[in-house]
Structures are given as C-alpha cells and as structure tokens.
Amino acid sequence: MKILKNKVLVPFVFLILISTFFPACAGTDLMEMHRTDKAFVGEWEKYSLLSIKQYGIPFNYEFKNAEIETRIISEEGSLVITGADNVIGGWANFPEYVGANEVKQASLADCPLKTYYYSGFEWSYINGWEYFPEDGSKVVGDYITFIARKENHIVGFAVIYVHCDGLRGCGEVIVDKEFPQVNGKYQKVSEITVKERINEVIELHKASAD
Predict the structure, then answer these.
(1) Which of 119, 161, 185, 205 is most buried, judged by most C-beta within 10 A?
(2) By CB neighbour count within 10 A (0-12 exposed, 13-18 middle, 19+ buried), where does 46 fall?
(3) Mean pLDDT score of the chain, rounded to an integer?
(4) Count of other CB atoms within 10 angstroms of residue 66
(5) What is the rounded distance in angstroms from the CA atom of residue 93 to the CA atom of residue 91?
(6) Above 50 in pLDDT, residue 133?
(7) pLDDT higher than threshold 60 for residue 85
(8) Which residues, in sequence order, are CB contacts of 202 under 8 Å at separation 6+?
C-alpha cells in the first residue's frame, strides 16, 4: 500500500535532519526542549470493528495549564469534533459531519480550534469516506499543528503527520517542543517565530519523504 512506503526509512532519515537543524538551543536567545509521550496519533481502518466509533485517524496533544490552538494545512482534510466540550466555543457554528448526528466537522477555514490543556480530535477526508476511492489510487497526507500558550505566552508547539488511502490511515508525531521558562520568566517567542519553526519542520519532513 502506498501509505506504507518508506514507513521505516522516512522517520529515521527525518530524525537525522531534525537533530541537525533543531539543536537544544534553537537560536542564540531561544531555548527549546523536546517532550515525549504528550502527543499521540493512532490508526483507522474503514471496515475494522475497532474503528466502528471512529470517524477518522485519532490523535491528541496535551500541555498542562495551556490553551492550545490546533490546525490542519490541507484543504482535503478536516477535524472531526465528537462533543461540544471538546472545543472552546463555536460548536453550533461548525457543520455536521457527513452522515453523523451531533458530530461536527472543522475544515481548514475553521481553524484554529481552541482547547484547554488537551486537544483530541479525529482527522477525516473533507467530503466523507464514502466519496474517497478504495482502490488505493489516491493517497492524502496532512499536517496537524499545535501551538500552546500560557498567560498569552507561547510555550510550545508540535506537528503530527497523517496519511490515508481511503481504507486505512495512520500517522506519526514528528516533533513536540517546549519553550521552558528561563530564570523563572517566559521566553519571548513571537507568533512569526513559532510559525517559522513549524514550517521548517514540515518542509524537512516533506524533503525526507521524497
């Protein structure tokens, strides 16, 4: 299957690249720390009994005491919101997910989704899986990005990659970083800086997959 091509090689190559371009000190004045076990991406199979209650690829990201912004970058993807409590505000304004009641769908235009402490959604094809070819002729990939804030200070970011061929989907956590306090004070991380970090991670990952 196409989505499994270079499944082992790509993460290995990417780890080499990311360690080269993202040392512990990412710049002369900005300190980054790598986090583990705070971000997760699962698997989804269209006809699996284990996926009966899933609408797509499950994922989550957590950052204690922070407000989290979650985004996608592909117009072919969407985020499935399974409950009003899963997102801060705007629940009533999101469209219904295709073929499901009381389940909402957020497109690229609806992002970012805002949550407290924990971001947990499912990634799905924007038009619903019934319109996605099942012969493996089409593969869609997307990046899910997160920015964490405390007291209006950016304190971390993460990037997850997901991909599917209509019958099966999976993904990987590419990077999960924290900007720790220095001498008891938040670092001055601008919106531009963190978005540049995210874009660099995505471009490196794309290059490693070619």
Answers:
(1) 119
(2) middle
(3) 87
(4) 22
(5) 5
(6) yes
(7) yes
(8) 73, 143, 145, 159, 174
Question: Full-prediction pTM beyond 0.85?
Answer: yes
| Beta carbons of 189 and 179 less than 8 angstroms apart | yes
Query: What number of residues does the chain have?
Result: 210
Q: What is the dihedral of CA 82, 83, 84, 89, to 10 degrees?
A: -40
Beta strands in the chain (DSSP E): 33-34, 39-41, 44-45, 57-72, 77-81, 104-106, 113-125, 140-150, 153-164, 168-178
Q: What pLDDT digit, counting tens, does each position of 60-80 carry?
A: 999 999 999 999 999 999 999
Query: Is 202's pLDDT higher than 50?
Result: yes
The position carrying tokens 């629940």 is 91
115 near 87, Cβ under 8 Å?
yes
51 pLDDT band (50/70/90 cuts)?
A: low
Q: How far apart are the first and last CA of the chain?
A: 17
Token pair of 137, please?
């002729």
Tokens of 46: 């269209």
- Give the closest residue to 142 by CA, choosing from 117, 116, 168, 169: 169
User: 157-170: buried (b, 16+ CB within 10 Å) or exposed (e) per residue?
Assistant: bbbbbbbbbbbbbb
